[in-house]
């Protein structure tokens, strides 16, 4: 299965988001996914299997529990592939950052100087010593 076929499913993407915060048991993953998507435990297990079989997640046994974690290698490959296209959105993000900075600067100018504390409010002022 191609990486984008794996990542194309919103349930599998959500599972990876959960696992990105740290290792979780299959029961913990199932509880969240069942609440958010209304799917059964066997369906969640199938999604976990697809992630595991395609290298996006690893599993380890701890007693009777199965603990899942993100496997970074296939995500790095996806990131490398996306690198060819990153320039299309980075330029726009740079332009957005410029516009946000311009708006903040214009608001500061329009609001005028921020008044400091007067002598009666400034405990360090000579008149108040």
From TrEMBL:
Species for this entry: Streptosporangium sandarakinum
Location of region: Disordered: 104-129
A GO MF label: DNA binding
Top-level division of the source organism's lineage: Bacteria
Protein name per its UniProtKB record: DNA-binding transcriptional ArsR family regulator
Record keywords: DNA-binding, Transcription, Transcription regulation
SMART domains: HTH_ARSR (SM00418)
Residue ranges occupied by any HTH arsR-type domain in the UniProt entry: 1-90
């Amino acid at each position: 299965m191609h990486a984008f076929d794996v990542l194309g499913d919103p349930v599998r993407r959500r599972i990876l988001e959960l696992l990105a915060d740290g290792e979780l048991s299959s029961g913990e993953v199932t509880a969240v996914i069942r609440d958010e998507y209304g799917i059964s435990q066997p369906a969640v297990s199938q999604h976990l299997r697809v992630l595991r079989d395609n290298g996006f997640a690893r599993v380890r046994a701890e007693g009777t529990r199965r603990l899942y974690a993100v496997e970074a290698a296939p995500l790095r490959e996806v990131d490398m592939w996306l690198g060819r296209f990153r320039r299309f959105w980075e330029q726009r993000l740079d332009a957005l950052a410029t516009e946000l900075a311009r708006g903040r600067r214009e608001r500061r100018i329009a609001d005028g100087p921020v008044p400091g504390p007067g002598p009666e409010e400034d405990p360090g002022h000579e008149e108040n010593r």
